[in-house]
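Methods — Computational structure assignment.
A single polypeptide chain was analysed. Its primary sequence is given first, followed by the predicted tertiary structure written as structure tokens.
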Amino acid sequence: MAQRGAQQNLLKFSCSICLDLLKDPITVPCGHNYCSNCINRHWEEEKSKRTYSCPLCRMEFYPKPNLRTNNLLAELVEDKKTELQAAAAERIQKQKELERNRLNIQQRIQERENEVKLLQQQVEAINVSADEAAKNSEESFTQVIRLIQKKSCEVKQLLRIQQQTAVSRLKELKVKLEQEITELKRKDVQLEQLAHTEDHTQFLLSYPSVSALSEPTHSSSIQTSLLRYFEDVAVAVSESIEAIQEILRDTEINMSLRATEEELLLPPPSSPLHPTALFRQSLQPRQSRLFRRSVLLRRSMQLRPQPQPETRADLLQYSQQITLDPNSAHRWLLLSDGNRKVTSTSEKNSYADHPDRFTEDVQVLSRESLTGRCYWEMKRRGKVVIAVTYKNISRAGNTNECVFGLNDNSWALRCYASGFKFLHNNTPTPISGPRSSRIGVYLDHTAGILSFYSVSGTMTLLHRVQTTFTQPLHAGVNLYPGEGASAEFLNLQ
């Protein structure tokens, strides 16, 4: 409504011939206003008619009216021009603000659309990850159940074998004891008869043969050891069940802890006073104890020692997919190929701060926790350190506690152009063997075996470690910065 009123107000100061604001306004006798030039041109065209009319109302005048400038109207028009110029300047300013606002709105729309797409991708990723985790968990628990069932059958079978063996031995012993009782009774009758012999010579001659007795059979120790064996088996099975229950409870606690952190949006527990850090510190002794018990449990369940693989075909049965953890990668390392390849760079990457990140040594750890039997191969270029380590290896600071092979938490194979060197707890061991760009690593966590192989046309054992692992292990890589060195975990499946 205000805009319509402004337009109507503007028409009052406009010439009906040129439709612009009046210039040198003239008022004709009928009262209508025109630009001086516009009305003179109009009347010049009507000169041949000898009459002069108003273009708006058609009133005719004769003779030609004597035209004069309407000074009041001229002043009003000038005021209106000034007003319009000010409104035009303000419009230009507001128009620029409008364009900026539209650009801001369009950018926010684009950002929100991108966020919506990202959220949808996260939803899909969460669904896929949850489904995969549920599937893997079900398969793992099914495998555990099958293993327990298998071991239960094996334990029952062994117990029955021991039972049959023990019963058979006891029956044999019973027969021998009954035979011994019969023999003793017979001897007792003979001795009784000999005791009533009055002939001294006959007594002396018969006594040695009659009094001779066989060695007694003692069964108390056999029976006691057998009973103790069955009791020990029952206790071992009971302790194994308790260990499994504690491991499952510990897993549930860790899952609940991670869920609580995500719900509360807590920062990483980098501070020792962080409540999560305090809680985890209280769990560490218990987790370490549980893991040692789980190792003992797995070892106790191996009723017969399994042979170690000898050929590459045997090793490939235990092939393990290895991916690297970006949160642990040093800033001079670049991950690629689905986080299976790492390359050293000459410039630092803009990784976000994370408590798991190595800050001084150019190293990275695997996502996967390695237990049981695992085998993987790596293709290297340049100077590369191939390692396995406990996850609690130090991440910050320039000390031996952070470097693969220089502490008791890690085992490392250093690969040079001229050869190899093995390190553990800062103790070097020179290694001779064929140089190759492909290295194989075999881990039998339960047996405490770690082996490194040179893989080319043939497979050659470079070094083997026999120890006791007390925690799960992670694969690790250390690269020399700025030299373009790289390492890639190969897909063997």
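Note: The helical segments are 2-11, 36-45, 71-195, 200-211, 220-264, 275-301, 312-316.
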